[in-house]
Specification:
Layout (H helix, E strand, L loop, with lengths): L1 H36 L5 H8 L3 H4 L3 H29 L5 H27 L7 H24 L7 H24 L1
Helix pairs in contact: 4-5, 4-7, 5-6, 6-7
């Protein structure tokens, strides 16, 4: 009986340690993403979109910057595909159709600029760091400008399809804005 009681005690102690250690790891991961996102304008969106990078990025600013740009690329690609689909379906007419064509084009530019940025982030060097940071700021700012320019084409437009499109584009611009903040 004493052996069983000791084994039960040890098992309970082990489970307590494992559970508390796991909670500490999750709490630290949560703190990592919150700390990284504290510099962004859209902090809750940042935490939501980058939370799963918390363990791998830890407290590394360069890893958080890469994560931010990677997430931005994914979102901008999704929105570009959505815009192309809306265009193919001919859901928008007149001025909105022209604005949609412009959006598809500007989102293509944004993707190119974000890919260039990710390439630089993967090969940062001390000797070129200042130039690389300047390039990153320029390209990510340009991607953000492309996204906002898309929204400008729909200013004053109404309708459910336009509102859905504006919301998707705006969300992509918020994610890109967060990526820019993480770079800085």
């Amino acid at each position: 009986m004493i052996i069983i009681a000791r084994l039960m005690f040890l098992l309970a102690l082990f489970l307590l340690l494992v559970t508390n250690t796991g909670q500490m790891v999750f709490a630290q991961d949560d703190n990592n993403v919150r700390d990284a996102c504290s510099v962004t304008r859209f902090q809750s969106l940042c935490v939501q979109t980058l939370g799963h990078f918390s363990r791998t990025a830890g407290t590394s600013p360069s890893k958080w910057a890469r994560a931010g740009v990677s997430v931005s690329i994914g979102e901008v690609k999704n929105v570009e595909a959505y815009l192309a689909q809306v265009k193919r379906q001919g859901q928008l007419k007149g001025r909105n159709s022209v604005a949609l064509s412009d959006c598809v084009e500007t989102f293509g530019y944004a993707i190119d600029e974000l890919h260039k940025s990710l390439g630089v982030l993967r090969s940062l060097s001390k000797s070129k760091f200042s130039t690389q940071m300047g390039d990153l700021n320029t390209w990510i700012s340009a991607a953000l400008t492309d996204e906002v320019t898309c929204l400008d084409g729909f200013e004053g437009s109404k309708g459910t399809n336009v509102k859905l499109l504006q919301n998707r584009v705006q969300n992509a611009s918020y994610i890109t804005s967060n990526a820019l903040a993480l770079i800085n």
